[in-house]
Structure formats: structure tokens, C-alpha cells
What we know:
The complex is a heterodimer.
Chain A: H1 2-16, H2 19-44, E1 51-56, H3 59-69, E2 78-82, H4 87-98, E3 104-109, E4 118-123, H5 129-150, H6 155-161, E5 170-173, E6 176-179, H7 182-217, H8 219-224, H9 229-260, H10 262-266, H11 279-306, H12 310-329, H13 331-336, H14 341-348, H15 353-363, H16 368-396, H17 406-414
Parallel strand pairs in A: 1-2, 1-3
Antiparallel strand pairs in A: 3-4, 5-6
Helix pairs in contact in A: 1-9, 2-9, 3-5, 7-9, 7-11, 7-12, 7-15, 9-11, 9-16, 11-12, 11-15, 11-16, 14-15, 16-17
Chain B: E1 2-13, E2 16-27, E3 31-35, H1 42-49, E4 57-62, E5 65-66, E6 75-78, H2 90-100, H3 105-118, H4 134-146, E7 152-156, H5 164-179, E8 183-188, H6 191-197, E9 200-205, E10 208-214, H7 215-220, E11 226-233, E12 243-249, E13 252-257, H8 263-273, E14 274-282, H9 286-299
Parallel strand pairs in B: 3-8, 3-9, 6-7, 7-8
Antiparallel strand pairs in B: 1-2, 1-4, 4-5, 9-10, 11-13, 11-14, 12-13
Amino acid sequence: MHSALLIAKREYLERVRSKAFLLTTILLPLVMGGIMAGSIFAASKGGGLKHLAIASNDAGLAAAVKAQVQKGDNPPESVMVVAPATEADRQELVKQVDARTLDGYLWLDLKPGKSVPQAIYASRTSADVFSVSRLQDAVSQALMRQQLAARGMAADQVDDLLRKVDVKTAQVKNGAIITSDASKSFIGAYVMIMMLYFVVVFYGMNVARSVIEEKTSRIFEVLLATARPESLLMGKLLGVGAAGLTQVGAWFLLLAVYSGSAIAARAGVNGFASFGITPLQLGFFAIYFLLGFFFYSAVAAGFGASVSSEQEVQQFSFFIVAPLLVGLIMMSYILSNPNSALSVGLSLFPPCTPIVMYLRLCSQTPPMWQLALSVVLMVAAIWVAIWIAARIYRVGILMYGKRATLPEMLRWLRYS
Amino acid sequence: MPVVELDRISKSYDQKVAIKDLSLKIEAGTMFGLLGPNGAGKTSSIRMMIGITLPDSGTVNLFDRPFSRDQLSRVGYLPEERGLYKKMNVMDQLVLMGQLHGLKAETAQQRARAWCDRLQIMDAADKKTQELSKGMQQKIQFISTLLHDPGLIIMDEPFSGLDPVNASLLQDTLLDLKKQGKAILFSTHRMDQVEKLCDSICLVHRGEAVLAGTMREVKSGYERNRVLIHFEGGRDFLGHPAVESFKEYAGQAEIKLKPGANAQDLLKSAAERATIFRFELVEPSLEEIFIKTVGEKVDA
């Protein structure tokens, strides 16, 4: 145990003192925050539609659509109406779009006797989905208003009728209804899962790489002359794991500082609860993070010991973390069906446990026995993974130059 | 009391036999050379001595007791290639190695400083390993092997990559340690070093010991059948019946005697015909013995 702790200290300090550690600890939250802020900003900007023209043979319809377009958030700076429009007007509009004085024009052709016009939106880009859906809404709303008005309804009654209904969510927990915010707990789960995934993958691969480094530089031969391979491996996992926890801890600290700050309060954030993260979830995050980390790192270490170069690790790394991806891919299914047989089964299958069980936990607290069983199963799986990895470690590390075949690895397990 | 005793150890990997029935003993206060061509099984036998691998059969005794891992704190092992953390500071690395061998951090640090001073690499102590030359790294590795004052020192090719000045510095250090009563094993294929330093040897070929004993024993098994003469004057003594073959250079000749021939007869005959400055009955060099033994085995 003494040597395991010495090795752990070394691995920990080497990582924590590196520039890369400092950079990722500080930069990653900034980049993530930047991406979030960026997408919120982009969404609020409404797709960049600034100068619009509405052309129609029906002046009433054009005016109604214009009124509707200008109603929403972030309306275009100018909306020009051309009505009744002729083919010559269309040529002129095309020229203006080409000359960039217009972003696009909406052509509404209401055939006599029809109630729905033919609508074409022409712009320089064909993929401006956001503007198109916005115009689509505006045209339908305008038509509805026109139709309702034609049937004798007063303008304020129409407004009332067309008001959006906001569906709030609630969660049934232990027989009682509690208010919850679906989008918040989804975002909370999402952030935590991404963190878990990133850290487990990043540090697991880190372990594999450091095993290869020891193998190629033959440090391992010196170390093996002082301690058992199991202690060396344990030390490595403890050290690298502690470095990972330090990083996650720093991120949580940043998040806590942010969520407790005045800026956050203005954005309606007050403490972790604002992200839909409960203390129970936080506790289990730590537990599943550690379990997941040890499991995947032991697998990665055994794998690192059986190959001879970093490139090979990169080629195969996908297969190692594939079970974690299963959880990510099935995220929305698990969040909405936390107690289905599939969700329960996956959450008790050790390679999937950290992510799937955590997702279930975010959606609805699973029965205690399932939580306990998942932890027991994971600890057993970790023990097996470390035992196998230590075997491969000891023998594989002394073989150079070629990758081991599966039968060879099975034979190594029997070597003492 | 032998410090290391291997008794008929064998080890196979898959179908390949790495070591077969190897026995050897190393006493305290002696230097032992483990020789053999590349791939003969030198490193395999060393690994079994320190428990990196275990023999399939046979026993390993360290310090007069069956091998157990707690004895490893009394062993210093220098592997053939450098085994150092590249990005780690040299002093931290030495302290870690000392601690892994059971020293306290402060003791390890003090000893590391003393050794760095002795091997003239004090400047390197605060650098990262990857910034050092190959020779410097070898010295660091050398120190990390000796920091915990081991009773058994095992060195696999310790002088590779060193210039002559540094090689002789390390040789002197090893001789000093031998005087202090340490048992030193070193494995090499550099015969000249073995000849200068070792008290006993074991020559391994294809996993088997083909020659073993003290240097004197080994050499006495081979006849002194080579004569070196420096002379001036008549050279027809080279046709003497005792001469099997010869090579002649300016003023000197290297003669190989016939089996059982008397060198004194040749000296008399030569002295009658020429002025002799030097007449030496040369014992075979270890290199010749090595090539002869291994070569015979290859032929067989």
C-alpha cells in the first residue's frame, strides 16, 4: 500500500502541475459557457433577417402579414410592402436581393376564390430555416386573423384566442406532486453527463497512455523490482483519479461561485438547485464518477499494457468507451422511461451503470435496492478489471514490439 | 554466505525455452559477470532473481533465504535501458526511488545529493530528465539503484552509452562498493570490462550455463598456447617444430604453439638466433574463450 500511495502521489503531482491541466481546468468552462452564450445569442438574433419585402396581389393580406412579422421578438428592421405587385415588381425585388439591400422577399399570390395564398420566400441563402418558419407562422396567423375578423370577431377577442399557452411540468415523487422544470432537469442531467463522459474518457485514456509510456521507457521494469504490479496499478489509478476529481471539483467550484453571484441572480440562477441539481444527485455524481473512472481506467490500463504504441490506443479507444456512448445515445429515452426493463437492465450492467443510472436518478429516484445493487456490481466489476489488468500489465509490459493476440492474453492471465 | 543462489532454475515462454537448469552463486564482496550473446537469457535470469517473473522450476535464494518480495529493499537493479520518468525533476525522481525502496524522504534526499556530488552531476539535480544527455541519465539511473545502500547490486549493461572518463568513474565506484562487501552482478557482452572487474563469471548460451567459475578457474581450463615475441635478427626460429602457426609484424611475432609443445624450447632456439626484447606466454583472453565456447556450441 505504501508504494501504491507513493506512485499515486507522483501521478497526481505530475498531472496537476502540468500546464495542460491548468489550461483545461480554466478554459473548458469558459469554452462551454461561450458556446452556450453563443447559441443563446444566435437564437435571440432570429436568423439575421433584417430587411424584408412582402409582395402580394392582395394588399390586405400583405399588411396583415407585415403586422404579424413585426410583432415577434427581435423583428426585422424594415419591412416593405409592395401591393398589388406585378411581374415588374418581382424583377425589381430580385435585383434588390441581389444587391443586398434586401435580405429576401415574401411573394404571396392569392388566387381569386381561394382563402390560402401560394407563398414563396426568396433569399440569397436557401437554408435560412429559422426565417422561413417564422414567416410561415406569420402568414398562418395573419390568415387566421383575417378569417376571424371576416366572421365578425373583435380584434381584442382575436388576440385572446391566439395567445400562446405555456405548458408547465410537474413531477410525481413518492405520491406527491412537486413542481419541477423539465428543461432545467434536462440541462442539469446533460451538463453532468457530459462532464462525467468527458472526464472518464479523458482520464481513462490518460491512464492507458501513461502505461504505454512506462512500457516504452522501461520504467516499469525498475518499479516492478520494488513493488507488486497490483499496487503499481492501484497507485496509478488513484493518482490519476484524484487529478480528475480535482479538475471536476474546480469546475463545480466555478459553477458554485457563478450560481451564487449577482450576475447569475440577475439571470434567475440561485445556487445549484437552479440547474435542477439536487444534493442527492451531486452525491451520486461523485460516486458514479469514481466507480466509472476506476472501471474504465483499469480496462484502459490493461489495454495499454497489451499494445505497443499510442496510435494503437487511439485506434481502439472508441471500443473501450462504447458502453458509455450507449448511455449518451439513449439519454432522452432513459430520461422519459427511467423504470422500463431496458433502462433498469442497462443501469445494472457495470460498463453502462455510471451514465445510465445517473440519468435515471435525474429523472426519478430509482428504488434504493437498485442503487445499492448497481454500486455492488460496479465494485465487483472493478475488482475483476483490476485483477485482469494487473496480470496483463505484468506480463504484457515485458513483451515489446508487437501487439498481443487474444489467445496470448488469455495465456498471460495464467502466468505468474 | 552466498547473497544470491540460483538452483537449477528453468523458464519457458510459450514454446521457447528461455532458461534451462541454470545454477549460480554470488558471494558478498565479489563482482560477478553474467555473460552471453544477445538473447542468451541474461535478462531473463536477472528478472527471476528479483521476482519480476517467477521460474517454472528451481529455487531462488536471496541473502540465504528463499526469495520473498520484502528482500527487494536490499536489492538495487539497473535495467539495460533507462527507466526514468522523462518529465520528472531529477531530484524528485531519486527521492521517489529511494522511498519506494523504503527510505524516508529526507534520508533519500541527503543521499541523492551526496551521490550527485560524487558522480559530478550536481548541476543536473534540478533539471528534468528529458533535458539530460544519455550519459547523464545513465548516471542518474545508477544513483537510483544505489540510494538505498543495497547488499546486492544488479546491473544490466551499466556502462553502455558512457564515454571512457565516465565509464571509469562508475567502474571505480563499483570497485569501491565491492570493497564495502556488496555483491555485484553485472551482465554484459563487453569482455574487456568483465576481465578487468569480475572475480567470477557465468557464460550463458541459449539459456544454459556453458562456462562458470572464478576467472582463474575459467582461464586455467584453457592452455597458454600463445606466445608474443619482440626480437631483432634472424627469424628462422619461426620454423621451430613447436610452432603451429604465426603472424609476423615488424620486429614482432605472434605465435600459436602446437598442443603440448614446450615454450621454453622455442625461447632457447630463438635466443640463439636473434636478440629477444620480450617473450611472453599469453593466457587466452576472455573474449577468445567466449568466442571459442559459443562458437563451438553454434557448430555443435
